[in-house]
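Reviewers of the previous submission asked for a worked example of the structure-prediction workflow described in the proposal, so we include one complete record here. The input consisted solely of the amino acid sequence. No template or homolog information was supplied to the procedure at any stage.
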Amino acid sequence: MADYDVLIAGGGPVGASLALALCGSGLVVGLLEPRAPRAAQADPRPVALSHGSRLILERLGVWEQLAPATPIRRIHVSQRGGFGRVELDATEARLPALGYVVDYSRLAVTLETALEAAGGCRVTRAAVTGTHADADAAYAQFDAGRGPEQATTRLLAVADGGALASGRVQIRDYRQAAVTARVTCGMPHQNVAYERFTPEGPLALLPMGGMLALVWTTTPDSAQQLCALPELGFLKRLQCAFGSRLGAFISASARAWFPLALKTTERIAEPRTVALGNAAQTLHPVAGQGFNLGLRDAWELAEVVRSGGQDEIGAAGPIRAYRARRRLDRGGSIWFTDALVRLFSNDIAPLRLARGLGLAALGAVPPARDFVVRRMTFGTRG
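From that input alone, the workflow returned the following structure tokens.
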């Protein structure tokens, strides 16, 4: 007999969301997470949640605890050094907001706290050191400080992004890095998010309270230099890259940077084992699709688990059903973000012209804008 019905490796936002979605199901659910409680409080990254993700978080009972989440009413997309732009509008899309911006740390701690309050999930502070599966169960080896241990489970859900390194992984190194910071400027943001494509990569400014959350993609060397600059020098570089649409940039918080690559595992679901979130795919931050895709992974896996009998958990049939349900959404999101990076992160004249024509055409055709917004908001089910 297995120790667990579902064992989750990784207690970040995606793993915690899956555990919350399974609370009250009567199943024996466990979670392995090596970090200490509230460890994510030190993570400075912003997260753009789609309206579809808000609906899932409401069903999980945590949306109100995330307040204040700053709504995005409009998204302004342009390219530096080229014509063509498009504005996406929540009212036009018949949505209360195109998205919401929160701190990653607040999101992670809120989900962790909600899971503790819900009960019904055994949390073990331990890192997974190995996994394998047979026809009857999956096995997770871990060390919680008492020496090597092993747990058996009907279904092992791997939600730890670090697990990508040990699986069958395809990696595309974008040779880019993202610089994150909070900035203020001379004009109010009016809940508009900006995605400005430059030859080095996209520069995003997201409304966040009275400030703007910056995610600036550039080369790794430039990212290190930007983080080392004094505040005034950094603001001058940012002004040059973004322009004066928001007036002069006034202040910037401490900066951090991290390298960017597309990482995907070849097989996201096999009998007894499923990979989801960053353990299944790590995306470029352009268009803010990564966490939203991972949250949909968790929600749909929980639906598959809860809809069958206990003996079916992790069996071949339900796993095939889950894999089929996620194929289009996952593949479309990976293709979309990768295509944006490859198409816009260059200064090739013919491509610059084609990009401008594409942006102008998208801005002129409301059904096309609506299609893009629905896919970004709800995935392939939009």
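The chain is about 35% helix and 30% strand. We consider this example representative of the routine output the project will generate in years two and three.
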